[in-house]
Fold this protein.
Amino acid sequence: MNVSWVKRFFTTEEYTVKYFVCSERAAWRGCSGFGSIQNALFEDKGASTMLNGYSSHIDKQRDKYGAPYFCVMWLEGDEKLDKALIVNENEVAFVSVSRIAHFDKTNVTNWDIKYPLEETELRKEATKVKTSLESIFSDAEFKVPLSEEAFSTLCEAITNPSQPSDIIDDLSEFLMLNKSTEIETIIKSRVGQGHFRKQLVDYWKGCAVSGCKNTILLKASHIKPWAKSNNQERLDFYNGLLLIPGLDTVFDAGLITFSSTGEMQVSDTLPLSDLAYLGVYTPTNKIVGITDKHAQYLEYHRKYVFEYWLK
């Protein structure tokens, strides 16, 4: 996934935040005063509080307009950015602005003196917009938990150039994760200096195969691939090897694997001469330090990752 739009979405200062709420009695009413998407999501009058919190301001909003169903926001500026957020009480969906910006703003002035027929029409319109938003939300390709810590970690990973590039590579996987109490830890485990990598460095002290001690150069590689692991497995440092970049590449590609006792096995499709270019000068290298807990993940790698194209 190209995440350049995500970076612009969360770091730009050149846009105006457009913010609408779909509520029980008001289909599409606008709110203002938010200086950034983060504020629109998490400040006192933002979406998180609107949908889940309680304050004198929010209580008055609920009394006047009824229970809120969704908050929707996007950015407007000189440069077109065709992305918007639809927020419910648990998650945030990334969608196209063109799918939501066509709704007509509801006239909710002087609500207390509306005639019953007017109120009935407003409720019907709110239900109609709610149904449309539910469909768009359900179809959204990417969703993230409505969590301030998760968004802060996401923004830090995107904007901090000192972090390894594989954070950005993993962003699409992060966006597809379902709500989880472990989500913040999972995100941090993919940050270069995060907990997962630190545990691997502490355990292996260097490349698990070559012995290279320059940990700046080494990759924190999952044995059972990240995409195939559950949340517990993603965080389990026994599901990890610290490897030089060449070994990390061929291991992830299924061109090498290791026995339950650590012996390297090389695919017949990988010429031994190529190993030297990858920094592996002998196929007899062995991992020292394998435990039974590592072995269960290595078994998965041998069965489902090693030479997967032949299976």
Notes: The first helix runs from residue 4 to 11. The CA atoms of residues 91 and 145 lie 4 Å apart.
